[in-house]
Amino acid sequence: MAKGNLVVGQGGGPTAVINSSLVGVIHEAMANDIYASLGERGPIGDIYGMVHGVEGFLQGDIIDLRKQSRSALETLRYTPASALGTARYKPSKEEFVKVVEKLKAMKIRYFFYIGGNDSASIVRGVNRAAKELDYNVYAIAVPKTVDNDLVGTDHCPGYGSGARFVAAAIRNTGRDTEAMGKYGPIRLMEIMGRNAGWLTAATALAREEERDAPHLVYVPERPVTVEQVVEDVRRVYEKLGFCVAAISEGTVDPSGRSIGEDIAPKEVDGFGHVRKGGVTPFLSELINAKLGIRARLDNPYYLQRSFVEMASPVDQDEAYRVGRQAVRAALAGAKGVMITLEREAGPEYYCSTGVVDVEKVADQESKMPADMMNEAGNFPTQKFLNYARPLIGGPLPKLARLEMIRV
Amino acid sequence: MAKGNLVVGQGGGPTAVINSSLVGVIHEAMANDIYASLGERGPIGDIYGMVHGVEGFLQGDIIDLRKQSRSALETLRYTPASALGTARYKPSKEEFVKVVEKLKAMKIRYFFYIGGNDSASIVRGVNRAAKELDYNVYAIAVPKTVDNDLVGTDHCPGYGSGARFVAAAIRNTGRDTEAMGKYGPIRLMEIMGRNAGWLTAATALAREEERDAPHLVYVPERPVTVEQVVEDVRRVYEKLGFCVAAISEGTVDPSGRSIGEDIAPKEVDGFGHVRKGGVTPFLSELINAKLGIRARLDNPYYLQRSFVEMASPVDQDEAYRVGRQAVRAALAGAKGVMITLEREAGPEYYCSTGVVDVEKVADQESKMPADMMNEAGNFPTQKFLNYARPLIGGPLPKLARLEMIRV
Question: Interface pTM (ipTM) of the complex?
């Protein structure tokens, strides 16, 4: 075990549990303080936090994480968003050299970055530059993303909580739509996920009965024509009297063009003025033109990645564990890897942790496999539901309906 | 006590607790079944539900509420949206006569309508028509609205749960914005309330420290110039490095024009193309033009009135109680009244129930009094916070921040 200081940062879009991973790193790093009480120094000295990621680190914006109150850290485990501040900065090769020089100057041997694909590429960059400069750094990526699009791991911390939120959201808005009847029978909910439909597909976990929302689910991995969407909505509406659809912000048509952005309104005959701003405003206008019903919109925007009151306990626990495991892996000599979650076989859900080379993770995207969506491309399959259900940490509260016993 | 059947309906926008009131009516109506077990018939015979309100009732769409499973009713207390289906229908004078004729034909003496201003006007219409036709009906309005805009009551069932949701929503999105830093430092959250700012103001309950969102709150009762909003945002942003504002959908400028709708983009110098669709898209473009920062948007749309997982326990209890009290009031001979909540004096929050003449409630709107907003018109006062805090049913979960101890 190399002796040295530690630095940790957070990158990319925040989630409801990314601070659980941060506290996991800090707690595990502090766990070696037991050496100190034995009169011996542990391998980890100071514990630093980069404010606004590697960008802040380059500018010298660094805080002391050993001096935080223990009770504040405990509360931070259940506090949404990135407490260190996040960044979307992509350092150049020269800047990675500067990062490593700074690590060297600060006697830092342990480098942790909590985030998604871009964060993995930062760990890769630090790892490569450290090798070139022949400075021994244990750089580890800690996975995080509501999009669930990291390769090499069963799923990503942050996803389960986002999934629980969007499932609850569509279930509630579904009841609202059903109650509105003819005063607003069609509702479209737009969900985050530019290239991957994992989060949008998770809305399907809300559906137990035929009347339950969502009735239709569209994801970027399965292109659909706008005509199919309108026809799907019409069919559900005619059968149930209302219809609620979950639509990924990145839904594309078969030519690969983004619906609502690349597809210009004028290309679709028979309707005129359209509000800009994405797939659901576009489809709402189209449905109005074709079916004569104004589809209402829902969009949980930033709530889906930050609504901590709906965080999945499984997700909170796993986010904390990958943080702790990152430190253990580094102390065991791992470098240039991302911590992974590995689902164990058996009747009860459990994930252990593992590692994957960041070279395999950086700049890659994990997308929903074909057999997780049905043939029509408008609803997830049972295989997806089996995959996603344990991640939201238990069922949503039970709801009821009246029996329609006519008099 | 007149013997007769009972009918209950739900009107207007659903809430997270409107079914609690429905179950309250059913439970209290069934409570008089004790007479039956004593070999004596109680005053209330059949218990009917109007499907989609008075509109469905006129069309004969009526269900039997005595035949519902007891356990389903128990779950329904905690199920969002209007289980009977809602309506926005305003009957004509002739139709009110038809309603009363139908009540007479079905031997209905007890008429309950759960809803807001429009629902109170339906109870008024039924009450007036019944008098004219000399048919004895106990017509009672049961209050409900997330907007909190009914007169004659301390507050409205539905409001406390909506308030709890929007406070949590802005708190979470506030942490997300703070974490984003320069990658998205300004966020605007649009909240329901066309003419009344009660729900938007409730976001202020989330704020405990200077950095906590919301930093600015705008309501329809306090017109503001768009220039003031931009200047307020600039000031907060310069001080904190980020800014989160809660803005009522019905915010107007001093001339009474709706910001983002009546105020055309071209009237405001220096910026060009604007997305249509309300106050926050408009202000986002304006802030971008004036400050050079694209303000990001949040809009909880239908979630704010349906997100039952965030329902206030105080609100759930009060919604249930006003339902029960409506039946008790009717059995005591009240007619043409709405049940009210009356806050009792004393250190502990408690509301008892009362009644108010529907003639005083129908078509009226309760707005925030002037002393519930600060002088600048950009944040609620302590008086408002004291009023609203007990309604959300306990504090939101505690959050933490790191101490910025620079190294």
Answer: 0.96
